[in-house]
Design brief:
With 628 residues, the protein is an alpha+beta fold. The chain folds into three domains: 2-74, no CATH class; 230-470, no CATH class; 483-621, Immunoglobulin-like (Sandwich), CATH 2.60.40. It is built from twelve helices and 27 strands. It has helices spanning 2-6, 9-12, 134-138, 176-186, 272-290, 294-300, 303-315, 396-409, 415-428, 432-439, 447-470, 512-519, and strands at 18-23, 28-35, 39-44, 50-55, 60-64, 68-74, 87-94, 107-114, 122-130, 144-154, 157-166, 196-202, 205-214, 230-235, 250-252, 259-264, 327-332, 338-339, 483-497, 508-509, 532-536, 551-555, 561-562, 569-573, 579-584, 594-605, 608-621. Residues 1-15 have low confidence and may be disordered.
């Protein structure tokens, strides 16, 4: 067996040479940057499945024999020309061949990184673990996080300990995150990630093409905010209190109720008092945005970064904005909040969520929107996108900035990042994608065909966005809110059928003339784009919208708005602001039950937020149902 003969090379090769593995199945060879003078001896395990290469450091490299035709030693060229676009080789050897089967703790490992003819070869002590949420749970090809024992550069990227290997399993192009990273860099968003593609081996078993990039974290070569006064925050439902209730670093924001987690200061530095202080600081920004006070908000938020960041989210049709997920923001001392870094875009590009566990389908429709044609009304596909991202469209200054930002970048928003994408794609075309597709075949999909679909979708999207952004309405009343005034209550009685559940034949109808009279606004001066409707708690405070409507609320047995899981009756408001859908959850209601719930209209007039309550008295009856 040629492989057994090659063991002799472990004791006879020159100290300047490196391990060379030939893979019969892959019809190629891989240069593993392990100097022979670091090898003590090698042996085949008793069952013949592994070559155990013992290092003088005491670490053992377990190499799977299957697929290896021969093992020898050869020289690796020193770096000559930096070419970040080629596909590199990364070998991960876990201690005693331990499987990487957890996200909770790091497994000790060595990493050998072949810099080819472009970057220094690396042989590094580290730990490795799983990472991600849906990508870790749903897919066989797993993403990983690496933590080096000491800071090092990786393939020309700035020195750090923590790195990420993105599997990009549902993205057949492998380019969705790369395109956005290149776009973000073109648009000047700070601390935008870089890309290197590697073919990854774990214990010498080929596991596919991975995107090596930076971990989003505070640091001099990452998000460079100060150690003592810097903040790195993520708005992310998976890291928030509802999904991670035991965490000590998270909270729901005070004004918009968004799930948030503090990423810096990290757990070792973050006290509960510091966390609460960050929540209060963020609430000041939320209040300025909610009050449509552009001057105050622009003191607290870098508006250029906000306009660019939100524009990218909509352009890519990244539905994660609506959850929200993976929305990073940072702040240094008394400086403003700044958006970014950009992260996680394989849920954009019109991903087909109907087959989210197994599917790889994107690019079907380029006309869909997250925020809508009138973002302040959130009239897109995701009407529940947090108003934190859309309320500034209720100010003239931001709408003008958003339109100006689009005009600045529209001509190059596809062409410049795509030129970079093609250069990375050329590197992958030299065998890497063939080996990836052999290892992780996707029925009916090919790298080249999906890449072409992606490019066409982006070009069509650009033309579509030209028209959409040009026609975003500019608000009439641009006066910041400095006070509030309660103007009265409208009472509405509605009888719902228990048997009709979610399919009621009745609606909650509001007399528009009565409402405008209470506001003191004429029909000609009234602007639907500036109205807000919120559910109220029984104590009069604002609750949260737990429905899919632009406005609305799920009300529990005590008539307080909250989650669907506790809800008895609901109100949903979509395009018609004066005729609301309603319904009930049969599993938690009964015939004869009554609820009086309150929604509140809010409308700006001359710097005041005028408020009118709508008290809806629901009676649940046996009648009017669909009898079978």
């Amino acid at each position: 067996m040629a492989f057994l003969t090659a063991l002799a090379a472990l004791t006879s090769a020159s100290a300047q040479q490196w391990m060379k593995i030939h893979h019969e199945a892959q019809s190629t060879h891989w240069m593993l940057p392990v100097a022979v003078d670091s090898v003590d001896f090698g042996e085949i395990t008793a069952d013949g499945s592994l070559l155990a290469t013992h290092m003088k450091s005491g670490f053992t490299l377990p190499m799977y024999v299957e697929g290896i035709d021969s093992l020898a030693f050869d020289s690796i060229a020193e770096p000559v020309e930096k070419n970040k676009y080629q596909t590199f080789q990364m070998f991960v050897f876990t201690q005693n061949g331990h499987a990487i089967d957890t996200k909770e703790s790091y497994i000790p490992c060595y990493i050998a990184l072949n810099g080819a003819d472009s970057y220094d070869h690396r042989w590094l002590s580290a730990g490795i673990r799983g990472r991600g949420n849906s990508t870790w749970e749903w897919y066989d090809k797993k993403p990983y996080r690496i933590k080096l024992n000491k800071k090092h550069k990786m393939l020309g990227m700035a020195k750090a300990k923590s790195w990420v290997l993105l599997a990009n399993y549902r993205d057949v192009t492998d380019m969705m995150n790369t395109y956005v990273f290149e776009l973000g860099r073109m648009m000047g968003l700070p601390y935008t990630n870089h890309t290197r593609y590697v073919e990854l081996f774990v214990n010498n078993k080929y596991v596919g093409v991975y995107q090596l990039t930076e971990q989003v974290q505070q640091g001099s070569n990452r998000v460079n905010v100060s150690d003592d006064r810097g903040i790195l925050l993520t708005l992310d439902v998976d890291d928030g209190p509802s999904e991670d209730p035991s965490a000590q670093n998270n909270f729901n924001t005070k004004v918009y109720g968004m799930p948030a987690a503090v990423k810096y200061p990290d757990d070792d530095l973050l006290t509960s008092a510091r966390r609460d202080s960050i929540r209060d600081v963020f609430a000041s920004l939320e209040a300025a945005i909610k009050n449509k006070d552009y001057a105050a908000a622009s003191e607290l938020l870098d508006m250029e970064s906000f306009a660019r960041y939100v524009l990218i989210q909509e352009f890519i049709y990244n539905v994660e904005l609506s959850a929200p997920r993976s929305i990073f923001m940072h702040k240094d001392g008394d400086g403003p909040w700044v958006m970014g870094p950009l992260w996680d875009f394989d849920a954009g590009y019109d991903f087909d969520w109907g087959n989210m566990y197994t599917g790889h389908t994107f690019f079907s429709n380029y006309r869909e929107t997250v925020m809508g044609t009138n973002p302040v009304r959130r009239n897109g596909n995701y009407s529940y996108v947090p108003a934190f991202f859309t309320d500034l469209f209720g100010t003239r200054e931001f709408v003008e900035l958003y339109k100006k930002t689009w005009r600045t970048y529209a001509d190059s928003i596809v062409s410049r990042p795509w030129a970079e994408v093609e250069r990375y794609a050329d590197g992958l075309r030299r065998g890497a994608m063939r080996r990836e597709n052999r290892t992780w075949p996707v029925s009916g999909k090919s790298f080249e065909a999906e890449l072409e679909k992606m490019h066409t979708w982006l070009e069509n999207r650009r033309a579509f966005m030209d028209n959409l952004i040009e026609n975003i309405p500019v608000p009439k009343d641009n006066t910041p809110i400095t006070g509030e005034d309660f103007k009265g209550t409208i009472n509405v009685d509605v009888e719902m059928s228990y048997w009709n559940g979610y399919n009621q034949s009745v609606t909650v109808d509001i007399d528009q003339e009565e409402l405008l009279k209470l506001f003191g606004v004429s029909d000609n001066d009234f602007s639907e784009a500036q109205i807000n409707i919120v559910p109220l708690m029984t104590d009069g405070s604002e609750g949260t919208n737990g429905t899919n409507g632009v406005f609305g609320g799920w009300f529990d047995g005590d008539n307080n708005p909250g989650k669907y899981a506790d809800g008895h009756v609901y109100i949903e408001v979509f395009d018609d602001l004066f005729s609301w859908n309603c319904g009930l959850e049969q599993a938690r209601c009964f015939s004869g039950e009554e609820h009086t719930v309150t929604m509140q209209y809010q409308y700006p007039v001359n710097g005041k937020r005028l408020k009118v309550n709508v008290a809806v008295h629901f009676t649940i009856s046996d009648g009017g149902g669909w009898w079978w």
